Amino acid sequence: MPKTLVEAIIAAHTKDPVRVGEICKVSVDFAFANDITTPPAVTSFRKMGARKVFDPQRCAVLPDHFTPQKDIAAAEQAKASREFAQEQGMLYWEVGRVGVEHAFLPEQGYILPGDIILGADSHTCTGGALGALATGVGSTDLAAAWALGESWLRVPPTLRVEFDGSPSSFITGKDMILALLGKIGVQGARYMAMEFDGDALEDLPLDDRFTMANMAIEGGAKTGLFVPDEQVLNYANKRGTRSFTPRYPDRGARYAREEIIKVDSLEPLVALHPSPGNVCAAREVSDLEIHQVFIGSCTNGRIRDLEGAARIMKGKKIAPGVRCIVIPASYEVYSQALERGYIATFIDAGAVVCTPSCGPCLGGHLGILASGERCVATSNRNFVGRMGSPKSEVVLASPLTAAASALTGYVTDPRDYLGESF
Amino acid sequence: MSIIQGKAWKYGDDVDTDVIIPARYLVTGDPEELGKHCMEDLDASFASSVSPGDILVGGENFGCGSSREHAPLAIKGAKCGGVIAKSYARIFFRNAINVGLPILECPEAVEEAQQGDTFSIDTEKGIIANLSRKKTYQAAAFPPFLSELIALGGLIPYVRKQLEESGQ
Fold this sequence. Notes:
The complex is a heterodimer of chains A (422) and B (168). With 422 residues, chain A is of the alpha/beta class. Helix content of chain A is 31%, strand content 18%. In chain A, β3, α3 and β4 form a beta-alpha-beta unit. In chain A, α10 packs across α12. Chain B is built from eight helices and seven strands. In chain B, α4 links the parallel β2 and β3. Chain B starts with a strand and ends with a helix. The model of chain B has no long low-confidence stretch (mean pLDDT 96). Chain B is α/β, with parallel strands linked by helices and 168 residues long. Classes of the chains: A alpha/beta (422), B alpha/beta (168). At the A-B interface, α2, α3 and α5 of A face α5 and α8 of B.
């Protein structure tokens, strides 16, 4: 039977029959956790009676959430995570060298086409940009994968999403994935795998693809997969830490559903409080006053994101009364941004530039909101209380929209700030 | 046989794990400590008013969002007996099974439940009785592999057995 991409990847990792809805035991190529999810994973690992992770070069701990350690309790969690990694001889990168996990791991060549990747973090699906079945699990599932090198997966039905047309220069991967979430809602792909396709993706830079795969979970999906193309294979060949076998969907594969997004007419979009599916055009809400802008996260903290934001902010000043926080998602991104002058642009504009961390995205630190405050953020979630006070609001947007909003103090369509000639 | 009995705390669709346990409290894995803040951003009265055995009743996509296993732990820590929902987000579903929080999928029971109704649930048979409305429902069955996993006591004993069998 012809297979969808997710079925092809599962079939290469299991002896069980691969049929939608069936549970398969699969081998796992790489498994990781962060400073919040590692300590409970260690507890479960010990209870399992496990002594050694299945392969220390395929198991990793990345302290990226409450780091640089924000308080004593967070420091204790980071310490427990580090000690376990050292005991096991696992991959571990210290603060100052680590990045936000879903930006850092692909960059370092640990997530590769055709892989099955488990991460104790829901945004593990970001790896789908490289054609890897990367999916988030809880700490106990992750501990089982560390112990056994395998896990169980239910074969998901596939939602094929076709992005047709050519986007204008104001349209980023963020706008494209928000368009989909606005259409299908936060449970429109629950328990499904998304497979992205269409001519709009052919020349789409990898950084934009990471953004789109990252937010597959926001539609409830297990993963959001791009079919590996030359751009992906070049990236993986250059960076890969091990060999890999890319997988592809078969012709005639059966898709449970298809959605088509026409990108020609797409406008810069935002998702309003309190749901990533609560999507409208940025222009429709240009009267919304804001107090903070956050540019960063595993969704939009990569070099192309900072490049876009810097183009908008170059020579301009952040609006009085607005705090703008920029957090490169990794040190590679940080160094590039420094070399290209983007960091200077941000600082001259009056922004705060922080070291790589998840920071305010999940309300951890480095920019928590007070009651009544509103933040335009390039991150992925705007649930009640996500970035601080349960009486604060988060508006999700692309780096271009976020940067334009920082300059005006209101939710701002980048075209309204710079004109159509961007 | 394992029976849970308690009052229903009913919420809507898409109850996310950020409201089940806000990230600002993720500096501990202690269920009791987490339980003190369970549902805080959605219903500040929940943690202080919930009684042991009470049931969380949710709509579609319960537990969406973050993969934090702290979410089912917080519900357990609040001494909730279990959750009935129309459907679950997939990571929460796995986590609940892994930490031993009883979860049942039953749209009809949710539809007809009112805040404060008294439920009695046989978690092994998946039989849900709404005593206030004198109605009984059958929850959706788990796939065979998951039933085996639950019967074995969850993922931890399952892995322990696998490791023993492979001599590690």
